[in-house]
Structure to design on (249 residues):
């Protein structure tokens, strides 16, 4: 449950943390665990279906919802005035804003303890867990990771048992940074070379309520280029623009 830093850089089999076999191409697993993985994340029956079309095919929804909103299955479609198919100027929902935490521009870094405190302030009944434990009824499992210098990111477990995520204003996907299906986000590849974002801190798995209407608050400046959460300077203009596309603020 506690945060840990991912030290390895190469892709690994997502069945077991102790497995040293490389995963097969376009697979979560190595040859040994392809047919059967003994370690599973139990479902509660409250997991959302993996249906990326809802987000991906409508710019108004795609550009106004980030990984945070997606993980909690929180749909908050803005008015045409603030966000349309032509232009979307509305900020993303941010952890802790609804419960009174300061904007990210007032805080140094995005660290796991602060992120979890913000989440617990926003979502009553949220609890930490691990991959193999079953969440209580009327909840489902999400995962929180961080690149503590610049960004956070969320994943959610879907009804098919696999995981998906929505990087900022980009499309929903069920693939990790290496293009492999996500079986366990704590073991999946989370280093995005093009943007310079490396979510090497795995904060926690969490059981998120799915039987209540959540009230999240938007915050931060909008960027037409945004697509993950904070902003770090890069050596070239191209990399700076790509990183902004992958940020949540």
């Amino acid at each position: 449950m506690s945060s840990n830093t991912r030290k390895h850089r190469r892709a690994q089999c997502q069945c077991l943390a102790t497995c040293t076999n490389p995963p097969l191409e376009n697979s979560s697993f190595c040859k040994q665990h392809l047919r059967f993985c003994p370690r599973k994340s139990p479902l509660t029956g409250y997991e959302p279906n993996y249906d990326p079309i809802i987000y991906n095919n409508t710019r108004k929804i795609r550009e106004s919802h980030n990984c945070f909103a997606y993980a909690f299955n929180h749909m908050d479609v803005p008015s045409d005035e603030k966000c349309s198919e032509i232009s979307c100027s509305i900020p993303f929902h941010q952890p802790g804003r609804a419960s009174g935490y300061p904007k990210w521009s007032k805080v140094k870094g995005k660290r796991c303890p602060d992120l979890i405190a913000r989440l617990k302030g926003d979502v009553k009944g949220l609890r930490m867990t691990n991959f193999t434990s079953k969440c209580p009824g009327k909840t489902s499992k999400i995962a929180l990771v961080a690149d503590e210098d610049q960004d956070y990111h969320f994943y959610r477990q879907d009804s098919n048992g696999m995981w998906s995520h929505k990087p900022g204003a980009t499309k929903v996907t069920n693939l990790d940074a290496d293009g492999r299906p996500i079986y366990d986000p704590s073991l999946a590849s989370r280093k995005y070379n093009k943007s310079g974002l490396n979510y090497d801190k795995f904060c926690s798995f969490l059981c998120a309520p799915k039987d209540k209407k959540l009230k999240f608050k938007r915050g931060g400046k909008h960027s037409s280029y945004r697509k993950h959460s904070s902003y770090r300077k890069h050596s070239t203009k191209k990399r700076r623009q790509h990183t902004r596309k992958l940020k949540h603020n």
The longest helix spans residues 112-122. Confidence is low (pLDDT under 50) at residues 222-227, 229-245. The chain is about 15% helix and 15% strand.
